[in-house]
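Chain A, query sequence.
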Amino acid sequence: MKKLPIGIQTLSHIIQDGYVYVDKTAIAHRLITSGKYYFLSRPRRFGKSLFLDTLKEIFEGNKALFKGLFIEDQWDFSKKYPVIHLDFSVGLSKNTDELERNLRYSLQRAEPSMVPPLPMMPLTEAWSIWIKYCCG
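Chain A, predicted structure.
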């Protein structure tokens, strides 16, 4: 009998360790291919982090994780996309300087091999450069 993935928020851990997984990749595919902007609002412990991790794995092209799932033959896994993970649960920014420092750190660690070094500049300009560089 498969184990329930209580408290596990990464798709790779669930798939590789044989936990129960309810395939939500059809929903992910529909969101990716038919929309623009989404606000995911669900109660605590309702699978938001796991769903976002699933999107990350899709965009990073990790096809092996999706064997037997809806999206396996619906997505071009040879094409990889940069993913930025902003985690606001890690700590509280007490002022705008701390928030900017944390956002810069997230930007710099997101995909260092794909992003040129960003000199000290306004944060909005740094994000704009990162997006243009990574996404064309």
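The radius of gyration is 17 Å. The mean pLDDT is 84.
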